[in-house]
Specification:
292 residues, alpha+beta, five-stranded antiparallel β-sheet, three-stranded antiparallel β-sheet, 7 helices, 8 strands
C-alpha cells in the first residue's frame, strides 16, 4: 500500500504515488457518474477521501523536507511566531493574576475560616496555570491562603511583580484595601528537576507550540536577538527566550503527528471502500484499490 509505505518512510515519490491514485479514483467516480451507476456515491466518497489523504501526504512531505533541509530558516520562523504569540499570552497571564487578586480582596473583610473557604473557591479552575492566594490583614499577618506556597510572599510591594528563585518564577499581583492586602501568584516557569508545584505557564506554552521558554533576570539576560524583555507600565519584569527543539526532535514529532493523521485518513478510506463493496456486492479486494 502506497499510503502505508509513506507512513513508514515519507518521500516525494510516494506522495506522487498517492496523488496518482487519487486521480485514478476521481476518474473512476466520474465515469460511474456519466454511466448513471448506482455506485457513484460510494466512488465519489472514496475520491473525496483520497483527495484529503493526498493533500495531507503532500503537506507533511513538504514540511518534513523543510525541517530536514532548511532547519535554520524553520527555526527562525518558529522563534518569530513564538515571540508574537508569547506577548499576547503573557498579557493573558497578567490579566488572570490581577483578576485573582481583585476577586480575593473582598475576603479580607471575612472571618479567617470564611476567608479560607472563599479563596479556596477562587482556585477551582481546571486547565489554568497553577496559582495561589495569600490574604494579609491590616497588620501584615497572613490570615488565609490557598494553593501551593513555594515562595515567601509579603504584603508590601508593587501591584505587579515577578519573583524569581533558583527553581521557580512567579508572577505576583497585589490588591490593597483598608482591611489588608490580597496577594495572588501565577506560576510562570519551574525547573524540571524540582518537585512539581503544578502546571506552569511555560509548560502550557510548550504543549501548544512544541517550543520551550527560558526566563532570565533582566539584569543577567544574554545579549541575543532571540531574547526579549517583557515590560509592563514601564517596568521590565523579566526577559524570556523561546527555545525550539533540536532538529531531530522536531522531525520526529512532525513525523509522529503526520503518521497519526494519515493513518486515520486511511482507516476512513478503507471503511468507505468496504462499505461500498458490501453494498454493491463487489469483491472486498476492490476496497483496497484506493489506498494502493
Amino acid at each position: 500500500m502506497v499510503a502505508a509505505e509513506w507512513m513508514r518512510a515519507p518521500a516525494w515519490a510516494l506522495a506522487l504515488g498517492v496523488a496518482l491514485l487519487t486521480g485514478y479514483v476521481a476518474v473512476a467516480a466520474h465515469r460511474l457518474w456519466r454511466e448513471g451507476d448506482a455506485g457513484v456515491v460510494v466512488a465519489a466518497s472514496g475520491a473525496l477521501l483520497m483527495v484529503v489523504l493526498s493533500v495531507l501526504v503532500a503537506a507533511f512531505t513538504w514540511r518534513l523536507a523543510r525541517v530536514e533541509r532548511r532547519w535554520s530558516a524553520v527555526r527562525e520562523a518558529r522563534i518569530a511566531a513564538d515571540s508574537r504569540r508569547l506577548g499576547n499570552e503573557l498579557e493573558g497571564a497578567v490579566r488572570v493574576v490581577r483578576g485573582l487578586a481583585d476577586r480575593a480582596a473582598p475576603a479580607l473583610d471575612l472571618a479567617p475560616a470564611s476567608a479560607f473557604e472563599a479563596v479556596g473557591r477562587l482556585l477551582a479552575r481546571r486547565g489554568a496555570a497553577t496559582n495561589s492566594v495569600v490574604l494579609f490583614d491590616a497588620h501584615g499577618q497572613p490570615m488565609a491562603w490557598a494553593g501551593p506556597q513555594r515562595v515567601a510572599l509579603v504584603p508590601e510591594g508593587p501591584p505587579l511583580a515577578a519573583v524569581m528563585t533558583p527553581f521557580y518564577l512567579w508572577l505576583v499581583a497585589r490588591r490593597q484595601t483598608d482591611a489588608g492586602t490580597a496577594v495572588a501568584t501565577l506560576l510562570l516557569a519551574r525547573d524540571s528537576a524540582t518537585p512539581s508545584a503544578g502546571v506552569a505557564f511555560a509548560d502550557q506554552f510548550a504543549g501548544r507550540t512544541g517550543d520551550g521558554l527560558r526566563f532570565f533576570d533582566p539584569a543577567s539576560a544574554p545579549a541575543d536577538s532571540d531574547v526579549f524583555d517583557y515590560q509592563l507600565d514601564g517596568d521590565t519584569l523579566f526577559a524570556v527566550q523561546p527555545v525550539p527543539p533540536e532538529q531531530a526532535v522536531a522531525r520526529d514529532r512532525l513525523r509522529a503527528g503526520a503518521r497519526r493523521l494519515v493513518f486515520w485518513a486511511v482507516v476512513l478510506l478503507l471503511l468507505a471502500g468496504v462499505t461500498g463493496a458490501v453494498r454493491l456486492r463487489l469483491p472486498l479486494q476492490a476496497a483496497l484499490l484506493p489506498v494502493g
